[in-house]
Amino acid sequence: MTETITFGVDPRIERSRRLVLTAAIDLLGELGYSGITIEAVAARSGVAKSTIYRHWVGKVELLEDAFAELKPPFEVRVGGSVRDRIIDLLEQLATHIAGSDWSSCLPAMIEAAERDPVAQKLQRKISTGRRKLLVSLLREGVASGELPRHVDPELAADCLAGAIMVRRLMSLDVLKPSDVRHLVGQVLHED
Fold first, then answer.
1. Containing domain of residue 110, as a range?
2. Residues 153-164: pLDDT tens digits?
3. Same domain, yes or no, for 40 and 121?
4. Among residues 12, 70, 8, 71, which one has the least CA distance to residue 46?
């Protein structure tokens, strides 16, 4: 029997990484995109600028990793109806933005994306994965006949996720997971 030896990440590096990512998210929520500098992150985290630059080229790469930590991968169960899988995905989104740092950082990224092409590119990258997953489920539902043929998967994805985002970011309220089923029925003209 062959024994495989694996080397883990140095706990000090992991601790520093965690401190830096937390500081970046905190600063983004407090000061907005333009308030994020490597200097500010170093001061907040207590990690040297040289250490930060060893792991990230600049603030864009740092924020990309920070958002990856904040945004858990949304999981879609295998099997079951497409409609139920769409509801499950949207319930995960509603739950996630109801109580996470992500919802305090998202307005800062949206605002920055209006003015800064680099922030715009980062914002698109952040939001692309979830949207692709939702569009794919909607396409599957239309193709299988489970959803009405008139449903435009791209537009329906915007309406479904958009309603959850607007409720959280504009009215500072959350769409309860129990309301997601009704939202899906309304948008897809099933209720």
1. 73-187
2. 999 999 999 999
3. no
4. 12
